[in-house]
Design brief:
It is built from 12 helices and 13 strands. The protein is α/β, with parallel strands linked by helices.
Length: 337
């Protein structure tokens, strides 16, 4: 295991700061570190205080959209002897408030990176998304970590995630002493996590683009958590795709989830969803239609080799689990008949 700054200074264990602790991954990661003797202290950073924290954890109110957040974080990291920062304050879905989302994703990441540099952290870990590769007709069957982050047109949410990750890449090049890691998560499924894919599969109507049935991959929320803990335990530099084994066509996903397909020609789908998004009547923007037309499937073999990540759920099994939790076992029987 890598030697942390606190251990080099004679401290009894690592000190970790975690943003975004009001969401599933942050909450559960803190719980895992609470029970791990290798971790001495956890700083839980968010704008909302959790209902409960363990004896190792301390809450600090931090608003990453505030102009002074970077300085505040740097002072906190130095005072508490933080050796590792885990940045999880990333929205899992687009927001109609694009300005706030931009400030959280881009400015928030800048604040975290500035604090990491000023306080001489040993490790910096951030969660991203495989959606940043973009859904394109010329995508290869599997996108490796070296593939360009092309995003998708007219989608500020994806643009912000791409810009944030490029900031992290620049930081890693200019601060080689900091072990900087990015986990690009596939769309997660589970009872406690909310993504564009899970919202689509919870809908009664599933929009589809005529003539297109792209392959999808996912990752079970517990496997996403496992990958995150592995990356915190044994920090390794670089980007890693985190996804389950296997893929399924969109039509299979929506059929098993009990969605009524709504196939539309591209021009109508874009126009209809655009109007509904502008009226705040839907939670998925029209730019997501690219992911309903073209492939965006990541190669997760590097995470298996370098991080030891072995997902317990395949894409099919994650879907089965998701459907069972919604009480739709009959759909499973029909799909497998």
């Amino acid at each position: 295991m890598s030697t942390s700054k606190s251990e080099r200074a004679g401290g009894a264990g690592r000190v970790v700061a975690v943003t975004g602790i009001s969401e599933f991954l942050g909450q559960r990661l803190i719980g895992l570190m609470e029970s791990d003797p290798r971790f001495r202290k956890i700083l839980a950073l968010d704008v909302r205080e959790p209902e409960r924290l363990g004896p190792k954890s301390a809450f600090r109110h931090v608003d990453l959209t505030h102009p002074s957040a970077g300085q505040e974080l740097a002072e906190l990291f130095r005072a508490q002897g933080v050796d590792t920062a885990v940045h999880l304050a990333i929205m899992s879905n687009p927001s109609h408030d694009a300005s706030y989302a931009h400030e959280l994703h881009v400015a928030g990441t800048m604040h975290m990176l500035g604090a990491a540099a000023a306080s001489q952290l040993a490790h910096f870990l951030v969660v991203g998304s495989t959606l940043t590769y973009g859904a394109r007709p010329d995508n290869p069957a599997y996108l490796g970590e070296a593939s360009p982050l092309r995003g998708t047109a007219r989608c500020p949410f994806i643009d912000d995630l791409v810009e944030s990750e490029k900031l992290v890449e620049d930081f890693a090049r200019s601060h080689p002493r900091v072990v900087t890691c990015v986990l690009r998560m596939a769309s997660a499924l589970g009872p406690h996590i909310d993504t564009m894919l899970s919202r689509l599969l919870r809908s009664s109507l599933a929009p589809a683009v005529l003539g297109h049935d792209p392959l999808f991959q996912t990752v079970h929320e517990l496997d996403a958590l496992e990958a995150l803990k592995l990356a915190v335990d044994e920090p390794r530099p670089g980007a890693y795709n985190i996804a389950a084994e296997g893929v399924l066509p969109l039509s299979s996903l929506t059929r098993v989830a009990g969605c009524l397909p709504l196939p539309l020609p591209p021009w109508l789908a874009d126009r209809l969803l655009g109007m509904l998004w502008a009226a705040q009547a839907v939670t998925v923007p029209p730019s997501f239609l690219d992911y309903l037309r073209y492939p965006c499937v990541a190669d997760a073999s590097r995470a298996r080799r370098a991080l030891g990540f072995q997902p317990r759920y395949t894409t099919r099994e994650a879907l089965r689990n998701f459907v069972r939790l919604r009480g739709l076992e009959d759909n499973l029987a029909d799909a497998e008949a």
